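Before relying on records like the one below, remember that each one covers exactly one chain. Contacts with other chains, cofactors or solvent are not represented anywhere in the record.
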Amino acid sequence: MTSPFLGELLGTMVLIILGNGVVAGALLRGSKAEGAGWIAITAGWAFAVLAGIFVATAAGSPDAHINPAVTLAAAITSGRWDTLVTYVPAQMIGAFLGATVVWLHYLPHWAVTADQGAKRACFCTDPAIRHPIANWVSEIVGTFLLILIVGALLSRSVGAAGSIPTGLAPYLIGMVVWGIGLSLGGTTGYAINPARDLGPRLAHAILPIAGKGDSDWGYALIPVAGPAIGATLAALVVLAIGF
């Protein structure tokens, strides 16, 4: 029953359930975690990445990308362009399903939360200050660092210091995402993953969420294309350095 498609779908679904779940817990009225803040959100996303990688691997995806930007970077560095056809649709579907589960899990909280922006933030990202150039830069830089650092962690060409046991990699990748969120995430909410933003944004647009407001499609290109650009640039650097 396992397959790369199923692995990426389930892994990304778990990523979004736990990642957007911690955002919903911190932002929605009546939640016991209401007001938990940015530290809780970034930590929750780090653990979500860890859990998503484990589920993706167990369900049949040896790569466990759970992120189209990672898949794109891997295709550039390895020449395995076929993975884009298999992984990216699975990641998008998984992200949509994960967001749907979050909606169901917090079902009574949507109606008692008046802030439409807070409700949308439980699904997708938006900038702290809407400045298109700066917002593009934030998503490009965040994703560039994600790909560069993960590439370095997984490298086998830099000696013992860069070689880590396979079982330790998911924990370290989670820590990288945590660090990016803490250091750089305050500007745009650090999508750094097109599926993480687009799949839940579609869910926000489609689901009958009480008093939800609009889905901010005017911003939606940045957290999708920005990570793709950042991943491409980082992959080219990795190729040039020879990780």
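The CA atoms of residues 39 and 212 lie 25 Å apart.
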